[in-house]
Specification:
This protein is mainly β. It has no helices and 23 strands. A hairpin with a 3-residue loop joins strand 22 and strand 23 (271-279).
């Protein structure tokens, strides 16, 4: 990748002419579905998901020329906050506002820890974070695929999952450990098209580290960026000091309050760069 050099700007998000950023918070119960309608502007500025949710599943569905319905499925047995970002969520022929959708998920029977996994609908996944000594067993089987515990020769173990043919959506598996004294929740976010973007505005996830970060964040990117913005979940933009450091950019987070943010920018080739980051102290 080409490396970029630019100092981030605050207060404005000039990703597109007349562009703004807004935040919308929704309360939802685990396992439920939320629909947001009237997104984008047909043909001129259609909506697109540029940052998928960490735990749930999101898709744009169409009831018009371009998909204009945002469907979000909250994971079962999960309690917490999930976010996703939609470019041109509110749009006209000449404006394209980015929407940060925050889902506050309540659950009467949460399971922790949680391990989310992106899976292509024609693929399978294996997560080897178990031990044979823990006596892992599938407590709740996947509803839209099949999961099984794999015991490895060296006392390691993991869980293998394959979605049903043609399924696209959210699936979950609960694993019991130590005779039912501990439980793991595995989430499988199944997409048949893991790309986001269209011919007018392409989306690309950038590489950052460490994440979660404390006082500094390093960014790898290959091009010229018009502006960088660090956006809090309430829509507020934060000023960060950005300096080149060899083949990287260093972002000073020492004055940034702990929380979840979306780092975004727009290149001169109209590629929208996004990355969800966490600041901890």
């Amino acid at each position: 990748m080409k490396k970029m050099l630019l100092v981030a700007m605050a207060l404005a998000l000039p990703l597109l002419a007349g562009a703004q950023t807004f935040t919308e918070t929704r309360d939802i119960t685990c396992g439920d579905t939320s629909i947001v309608g009237s997104l984008g502007y047909p043909t001129w500025n259609p909506a697109q998901i540029v940052d998928l949710p960490t735990y749930g599943h999101a898709m744009l569905l169409g009831d018009f020329i371009e998909p204009n319905l945002l469907q979000y499925v909250a994971p079962p047995h999960f309690e917490g906050v999930d976010t996703l970002v939609v470019a041109c969520a509110h749009a006209t022929q000449i404006t394209c506002d980015t929407g940060i959708y925050v889902y506050q998920i309540s659950c009467p029977d949460p399971v922790s820890p949680v391990f989310p996994n992106l899976v292509h609908c024609n693929d399978s996944v294996y997560i080897n974070n178990l031990s044979g000594w823990w006596a892992p067993q599938v407590l709740q089987q996947a509803q839209h695929g099949h999961a099984e515990i794999i015991l490895e020769p060296t006392d390691g173990a993991g869980i293998a999952y394959r979605p049903d043919p043609g399924f696209e959506g959210l699936d979950a598996v609960t694993v019991s450990l130590m005779g039912g004294t501990q439980f793991y929740l595995y989430l499988f976010q199944v997409y048949c098209d893991l790309t986001t973007g269209n011919s007018e505005l392409q989306a690309e996830e950038i590489t950052v580290f460490p994440n979660p970060a404390t006082n500094e964040l390093f960014v790898q990117y290959a091009g010229h960026v018009n502006a960088w913005n660090l956006i809090a979940m309430n829509g507020a933009r934060r000023l960060v000091d950005v300096k080149p450091l060899g083949n990287l950019l260093r972002l000073d987070l020492s004055d940034i309050p702990p929380g979840v943010y979306v780092l975004c920018g727009l290149t001169t080739s109209d590629t929208l760069l996004v990355k969800k980051i966490v600041v901890k102290r």
